[in-house]
Amino acid sequence: MGIVMGGKLVLKPARLGKISYINTLPFYHGWLEPDDPISVWEGTPAEINRAMRAGAVDLAPISSLEYALRQEEYLVFPDLCIGSRDFARSVLLLSHEKIEGLNRRKIVLSDKSLSSQALLRILLKFKYGFDNEFETSNGTPDHMLAQGNAALVIGDEALFYRPEKFVYKYDLSELWWSWTGLPFCFAVWAVRRGFWEENQEETVRLYTRLKETTERNMADLEKLILEGLGMTLADKRFPQVFGYLFNLIFHFDSEMRSGLLRFYRDAFRAGLAPEVTSLHMAEV
Fold first, then answer.
1. Which sign does the torsion angle of CA 99, 104, 105, 108 carry?
2. Can you tell me the distance from the alpha carbon of 235 to that of 226, in angstroms, rounded to the nearest whole number?
3. Please, which pLDDT band fits residue 169 given cuts at 50, 70 and 90?
4. Which of 80, 122, 218, 244 has its CA 20 to 30 A from that of 227?
5. How far is CA 122 from CA 152, 223, 270, in A?
6. Which domains does the chain show, CATH number per domain?
7. pLDDT of residue 53 exceeding 70
8. Which long-range contacts (CB under 8 A, 24 or more apart) does 143-146 make?
9. Which residues in 99-137 are b (16+ Cβ under 10 Å) and which e?
10. What values do phi and psi take at 12, rounded to 5?
């Protein structure tokens, strides 16, 4: 049984997944209205992936690799993503030694990630020709570095990380860019097929407003950070957050799609995902 919203019947209120990182702020700030019949489920990228997979969330930004793993279950929104053309600043390999010396070394991977884990495995295997040992961890960056020779750290934790002792930092997006000449797409916006089939009109309404909200927020980053994060211009982190969001790509253009399909080819070649030959897009 549905509910009436705006004079129209909505068969099923949407369950929205929200990634609890600064890089999703342009999507969410000012998007939803107070009377929207929507429940919000917040978590790390890996937690949102699991919620979508389990059917607990209907639409959300999901890890690019999550789409590849279950491509028949999702439809991708055509214009929105989280990506970078060079430095992402929040997906870092922290290492006790230069990356050239990491062959056969132990790498500790953040369990909050999926696409970033795959990206690092691809880079080490195909760009550097390495054969590494991997383990996952939910520890802090310093704890992860104590467990192995290097650690993959993502999100706000990576963005604001300041080591007590010297470590080498490698931005995975920049390594990908220098290797392929293509941008890297960390996340795509997706809707579960079952929800789409029953609620196309409501999904289009939500998507249209999401796209407009993202464009408006990116057009005034200063206002977004001040209002969305409660910062002031005097905050020491303000310039860092401004530069971070300014450098990210939220538009899923043809170049970003080319980079994503290249990632899928490499993930298939590495045995990390089934083959993806095209993207199933929601007709919004």
1. positive
2. 10
3. very high
4. 80
5. 13, 38, 7
6. 3-83+184-269 (3.40.190.10), 91-180 (3.40.190.10)
7. yes
8. 144/94, 144/108, 144/110, 145/94, 145/96, 145/108
9. beebeebebbbbbbbbbbbbbbbbbbbeeeebebeeeeb
10. -150, 120
